[in-house]
Predict the structure.
Amino acid sequence: MEKHMFKQENGENSYIKITGEVGQEPCYSHTSFGERFYEVAVEVKRLSGNIDKVPVILPERFCSQLKAGRHVGIRGQLRTHSKDVGNHRQVLLRIFAREVWEAQDYDKGINQVELNGFLCKEPIYRRTPLNREITDLMVAVNRPYGKSDYIPCICWGKDARKAGGKKVGEPIHILGRMQNRKYVKQFPMGGQEEMVTYEISVMKILDDRE
């Protein structure tokens, strides 16, 4: 990942760039200020060969470039919003596309994220049964005009230790990638359901001097 790839355009504090294959035709999402927006999943290949199905929200003008099976690149910002899913509310993480292009190098699976934000919850540090260190973070990333997105992040190893020592309200500068992960949610009244969540897998926590 590039050391200095951050694009602070129009006051944005998040940046993401992906390349992958369009998994399906875009479907209508919502209308905002008279403009129609659509959602589509882009399949991004990891180095391991596994696939992350990354959800993208985009203006209608980009839809002609996003036919199923087409190889594309997308640049934009990360956005979150709450939605009723089944019998509970879930925070959904999406790419808000600013640029779309035909990607010849889609098979490299470019997946680059950079965030400038603040911790808005206490970090959760733990060890797996195999003694691997993990820390879960919730990072508030400010948009222009007073809005914020609350982006879940997961750190590993030395970055997990570094993140685990941070306090609520501290600034944090992250490089990583967007991934999806399946988990089983247990409900208070009994029962369970397999869910899919999206998060940022942290590759590096940058110091202020970097």
In short: Residues 135 and 161 are 7 Å apart (CA to CA). The radius of gyration is 17 Å. The mean pLDDT is 87.
